[in-house]
Amino acid sequence: MARRQRAARVAVDGVKVEFVYADGAKDDVQLSGDWNDWKAIQMFHEGGGMWSVVTPVPPGPHEFKFIVDGEWKHSNRHPTIGIDETSLNNVRFVLPEPDLSAERDGVADPRARPRGQRASATAGGAPAPAAAPPAAAADPKKKGLFK
């Protein structure tokens, strides 16, 4: 039940995605995209010519454009789609949020392991034994693999 409610919330609200425009603007930058019928979303001036906004976007491919000081523009810092300068839009593929409900249900998410730790290969959660070294490295008389 919780998973179904979560899926419905993501479909309506979307995944929180940050968009950044840093290609020069005097006074105002807005974001507009296909996920909200190209309605303008106000971006915030971060200083140094950078504008950003975090907004919910449904998972999947989406085209977007910026309204910079009243003019529709694409950014050269994001991938584009289109056939010429007048039809270019920026494009982004939004991934769905990972389902972490299994972790809450007592099943650990393998991505949550500390970096460098491998999954257990033995019963009972004990770590798997280390692999034996190559034969050349095990023989002290041999000084290298090719000798």
TrEMBL record:
Q: What is this protein called?
A: AMP-activated protein kinase glycogen-binding domain-containing protein
What Pfam families does the record tag this protein with? AMPK1_CBM
SUPFAM superfamilies reported for this sequence: E set domains
The opening ranks of the lineage are: Eukaryota, Rhodophyta, Bangiophyceae, Porphyridiales, Porphyridiaceae
- Family in the record: Belongs to the 5'-AMP-activated protein kinase beta subunit family.
Composition bias, Low complexity: 119-138
Region Disordered, residue ranges: 99-147
The biased composition feature labelled Basic and acidic residues covers: 101-112
The AMP-activated protein kinase glycogen-binding domain covers which part of the protein?
16-94
Q: Which segment of the chain is annotated as a signal peptide? A: none
The family database entries (InterPro entries) matched by this protein are listed as: AMPK1_CBM, CRP1_MDG1_kinase, Ig-like_fold, Ig_E-set
